[in-house]
Amino acid sequence: MSAPPVETLGPSAVRRAALAAQGFADPRPSGPVTRRHLARTLSRVQLLQLDSVNVAVRAHYMPLFSRLGGYDTALVDDAAWSHSARRPRLLVEYWAHEASLLPVADWPLLLSGAKRKGWWRHYESLADPALVNDVLAAVKELGPVGAGTLEAALGGTSRPRPPGATWWERSDVKRVCEFLFGRGDLTTGSRVHFQRLYDLTERVLPPEVLAAHPIDPEVAARELLLRSAAALGVATEPDLRDYYRLGPAQSRQAVTELVADGQLEPVAVRGWRHPAYRLPGARTPRRITGRALLCPFDPLIWERDRTERIFGFRYRIEIYVPEPQREFGYYVFPFLLDGELVGRVDLKSDRAAGVLRVPGAFGEPGIDVGRVVSELAAELRHMAEWLGLDGVVVGERGALAAPLAAALG
């Protein structure tokens, strides 16, 4: 019996499917944002990437603002780093795409072995078994606790971080903590000023989640790829695998099995070199409206090749590029308007001056400058208000800078 014909999709349909999968087809709430809105957004994006850069706003807060508008960030903090009978913990930290917040129930899937081996694995050979035991005992007694406090508590049992060391030159205790975090013995019990406080996983996660570990890696790979497909809308196998950083061989095998089971359906996309896939019944709206600023770690755009394929928008993060060589700026946010990426702005929260600074503002070729500037100005005002800043100050770089400054004036 011959296979059914594969549907061919055009670029516009793929773009609309991707945006709908990421929650951009849903209207922003008209009232206060609640835990129910948070849960619904997480059912779309699946995870929130963590990053230490705080030049504008922490990376895990911004994707929710992009989709929901202004909200109280304590909503995320409570969901990730606190627990009560009335408001149980919804999120846990682990290595997913990168360091991420993900639904508590997904923790066993990530520890299954379906993922590529994490960078923390090389600490295993460096971890002195006696120090591992000492760290576990100290966390049991003191947790939630930071690595610095553990070093002080363990006294001379570890090599401290040398003065003036870089972020990567970690102490023995920190290395052991990261190894135990990756292995699943420790997790983040809480965070204070973004510092991770380690605790025993058995004291943080519900018993039913702990009981679900371990999961067969092949089963976990299929489950994670289905989550990727839900978040991406239409995606190649490398796209699907990248969302959770799965191993290539395991991902290819899992995709083949999911197609055979009817849980993924193959499609062809005009202009794409590789076959693509989607969930049966995946939504493709007739049109996408609305606006959003996207941080560099938003799941819609974090895979740069995919962003270029879908939006025709070349995007690179320039944090590590020397300032004279930067094309657009240090921490640049693409601007989404009615389903297209129409511009980008370099953003900085100047908390001392109480303003959101825009050192540069740039438009894409062929845009309606007047409309883009009007919508961008409104979204920047909204973002500044959400961050508790008094206004927006625009610099001089980029063709949109002068009209944007006038619109905000």
Overall pLDDT level: 93
Order of helices and strands: EHHEHHEEHHHHEEHHHEHHEEEHEEEHEH
| Rg, nearest Å | 22 Å
Q: Which spans have pLDDT < 50 for at least 5 consecutive residues? A: 164-168
Q: Give the strand content.
A: 15-25%
Strand ordering within the main sheet: 10-11-12-13-14
Q: SS-based structural class?
A: alpha+beta
Biggest sheet features: 5 strands, mixed
What separation lies between the terminal Cα atoms?
A: 67 Å
Helix content: 25-40%
Question: How large is the count of helical segments?
Answer: 16
| Overall 3D form | globular
The total of beta strands comes to 14
Topology, please?
Layout: E1 7-9, H1 11-21, H2 35-45, E2 48-49, H3 62-68, H4 74-81, E3 91-95, E4 99-103, H5 107-110, H6 129-142, H7 147-154, H8 172-183, E5 186-192, E6 195-200, H9 201-204, H10 207-211, H11 217-232, E7 235-236, H12 237-244, H13 248-260, E8 265-269, E9 276-278, E10 291-293, H14 304-311, E11 332-337, E12 340-350, E13 355-363, H15 369-386, E14 391-397, H16 401-408
Parallel strand pairs: 1-8, 13-14
Antiparallel strand pairs: 2-4, 3-4, 5-6, 7-9, 8-9, 10-11, 11-12, 12-13
Helix pairs in contact: 11-12, 11-13, 12-13, 15-16
